[in-house]
Amino acid sequence: MTALPLHHYLVVGAVLFALGLIGFLARRNLIIMFLCVEMMLQGVSVNLAAFARYRGNLQGQAFILFLVAVAACEAAIALALILMLYRRRHSLDVSKWQELREPGEGPTEDVEPLPPTPREPPLPHLTPAGVEPEHRPEESHV
Amino acid sequence: MSDVRPYLWLIPALPLTAAAITGVFGPRLLRRHSHWPCILAGAGACVVAVLTCLAVYQDIAASEHSQPQQVRVYYEWIRVGDPGAGRGIEVGFGLNADALSAMMVLVVTFVGTLIAIYSVGYMHDDEGYARFFAEVSLFLFMMTTLVLADNFVLLYLGWEGVGLCSYLLIGFWFTKPAAAAAARKAFLVTRIGDMGLLLGILLLWSRFGHYLDYQHIFDNVQSAHKAGTLDYGLLTTACLLLLCGAVGKSAQFPLHVWLPDAMEGPTPVSALIHAATMVTAGVYLVARCTPLFALAPDAQVIVASLGALSALLTALIALTQNDLKRVLAYSTISQLGYMFLALGSGVRSGSEAFVTFAVLAALFHLFTHAFFKALLFLSAGSVMHAMGNVIDMRRFGGLRKVLPQTHWTFLCGGAALAGFPLLSGFWSKDEILDAAWTAGLHAEQYRGWYLVLWLVGLLTAGLTAFYTFRAYFMTFWGEERIPQEAFEHPHGHAAHGGTPRLESPPVMTVPLMVLAVFAVGVGLVLGPTHLFGHFVAHTPDLPEYEAEVPNYFMMVISSLVALAGIATAWWMYVRQPDLPARLAKSAQGLYQLSLNKFHIDELYEAFLLAPLAGFTTFIRIFDLYVLDSLVDLTGQLFRWLGLRFRPVQNGLVQFYALAMVLGLTVFLIALLLKL
Fold first, then answer.
1. Contact A104 B646 (CB under 8 A)
2. The whole model's pTM is what?
3. Contact between chains at B651 and A97 (C-beta distance less than 8 A)
């Protein structure tokens, strides 16, 4: 079985990158946008791996290891951020966040806004059972 | 005796060190002892100057009839291009002691030291005591640099430096508006002349072989003259530009207006800077450039005419001034005018030796004038000190019993200035008149004109004697009048028992007596014996000199004129004290003209300052409304552009990302097209 030539891998990487880019520009859902960014990152990773293989050394692959680690950290932070944002606006629409514009400029209005997410039903509130354990009142005033 | 000249750098260096020490430590540490660095440095420099003079004199004695070799101290300062090939600039911190420099530096350091000692008494309770001595030391540094320099750039450095010190010292009491204005006026008026000097130096550099040191320039001009390739028009222009600087610094007409106002400064400063040393820098410059001026008779006649005009004009003004120091100031201008008259008389007249004779006359007058004018100013300062800073002669009189020592020293100085027979002023003034007379008889060009100038000089000699003794009689004779301020003076030794003792302390009177001895004797010792002439004539570049036979005819005439002036003053101010007032009334127009200094200040005000002020107003309006609007326009343009681009910042993440992608695309396309 002969090895595939380099450009095949590069095309795959480019397709992944382009799909991610288009997704990032076109979609408005924060999570989808984040996933698109990850996809772009993977496109780059494919390229690195292909070049590493092609050149016969491990530099590209070592680089990918770092990339994956960074992407994992990013995912943790980004998802936490998205959760916080969602709690403020009850929506994942990125166009709800345009406060960082030039002062005095009006907001960009959406022609067709996303349908509002239905309020999720509140979690059931359980009555506490048993006796509250004794504890000393807090002394710290920090 | 070992040669002292390798240590020539000590002469400027000592006062500079003193200035630095006094300037840094004076106000806090030295305080009332701030005069010590200045006096010690001045005395040290004076000793070196004396030794230098002796060394130069030995050289002259050793090599009779040949130019003595020069000893130069040289440090490279500026070097651009290839000076050896005559393309470039080479300026060294080169000090050169030839006879002329040695004589000048001796005068500067000797008079400077005496005046510094005198200042200890005069300035004793002044708040700026340390500042005064720091500035005087700095002045000594600048002045010695000026006279010792062996090139024009270093001379210019000293030239501007003494101008600065003059400004600082005239404005010493800068809280007094008159002093501040006088300092500004002095600085600006001399600036006009300095501009000419700078242009002259640059013209010499660019057209006479790209050199800046005297020796090369003079040699180049001399050889071009011998080869017949010299551009005389250009040389005359260069000489006139140099003269411009000299006229500004030496306060000659039409730039003389700053010197009388400069009397606002402390009196020792007036004596040192505005009588004995700095104002003679112009005379020194022209004397130094004699090899150039001797080849430009047109320039020479202008030098002589300006000198004679200044001498006469200011002598006429001095006749009616009531401020003792101003009389002396106008007399200084007048005497400097004499020196220029002598310098200008140095034209070719058969023999080249005459040029040297005329220059020597000017320098001899410079030499004696430094002593007797410093003496007169210091005596006037002593009077002023005793009278509680009153200097108006109408308010005091008959002081010869009150201030006996000052009276005698003033009389010595006054008699020397008036040209009283056998005193120093007599010998030097006589030589100047002789020079003008000889030029009038034998000059190749402008013969008649020089005779007119001689007549002007003779008339001025009479006027000089008259106004000097008018001041003397008004101050020291007549009934005794002492202004009230004299007794309010902080140390006016109020009447202990008998009459109050107003005479100045010994620290002031001793320098006066030393100067008086010199004012009386120096002419007789150095003049008729030709000691001075033989010494200074050995300055390189001066034509060969033969001692001339004393002109007894001239001596008799000038003595008669001087005695007549003195006698007239005595008649008018001692014998018939009401005569001057009657005369003034009968010739009211002339009297007012002289009293108001021929309205020259007012003329400048009307014809120069007012149009200039109008022009500046125009410039100001132009700047405010045209230039400023242009500047504002550039700001407004970018403001407007910014407004257009503001909507781009809309806060949408995806819009930014799109912009980034588009920008990257454009960049990539450009890269591809480049490949």
1. yes
2. 0.77
3. yes
